[in-house]
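Hi F.,

I've been meaning to write this up properly since the lab meeting, where we talked about keeping a consistent format for the predictions we share between groups. The idea is simple: the sequence comes first, exactly as it goes in, then the structure tokens exactly as they come out, then a line or two of notes. No screenshots and no reformatting. I'm using this chain as the first example so we have something concrete to point to.
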Amino acid sequence: MKRTRNILIIISCMVISVTNAQSLGTKLGGLIGKSAKLKPEMLPESYEFNWLFKTLIKDGKGNESNMDFMFMEGDVKYYGMEMSNEQLKGQGQLFVVTDRGLEISTMFMLKQKGMGSENMAQMVSLPKEALENNAKNEEHYIYSELPPKVILNYNCKGIQMENDEYLMTLYYATDAPVSFFKVFGDDKKSIPKGFDPKWLDQMKDGLVMEMVCTNKKKDKYSFTMTAKSLEQKDMAIYRKDFQFMNGFMGLGSKN
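Output, unedited:
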């Protein structure tokens, strides 16, 4: 589960601010937050999606995980993720829905067919600072524009970021039907030093199709994210189908 959380943090933080790799540890603590007062009825009755974006995550040790992102067109403040790898086989499905409007991230654990246990859910407070820029750690990056390339038949623009510890490249499509940045917004006040505001204007409608993060000192902190497919698919997660856990211990209500 530690590896699962790390990858979720990497993708969430990197998509919002592609230079957050140095502070992943502190952001993990921020994502945990104080969640004891969260109640199932705070969530909508359902989270609905109509686009499925499949990606492949590969870490510095060669371990692979499939990460599927779920989006809903229109003015919504949430997105979903489903992760699968060798460690999660036989344990059912794991979905995480991050709701920026409510500042809540919910893990939905769907039991495997034939198992007698309940579908479980866990709500976690999502402090704003967990996904905000950390300009102190980002000010030493050098940014440059990369030649465009085509990924999944989409014309993609590229950006390279480099400092003494990391070399990162990111390609994003500006004509895709869905976007990470529409979920998170485009706060120009928090952009790091050296980051050209014109890139933010381009990326606000962009979908990250490829990301390569190379740690110059420790390979185990390197990773890649590669787009596999983007297709229309109607999906929904219903609150009533899950038993919610209170805090991080014990069971709550089914609502």
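Notes:
The chain has two domains: 2-132+231-245, 135-227.
Residues 135-227 form one domain.

If this format works for you, I'll send the rest the same way.

G.
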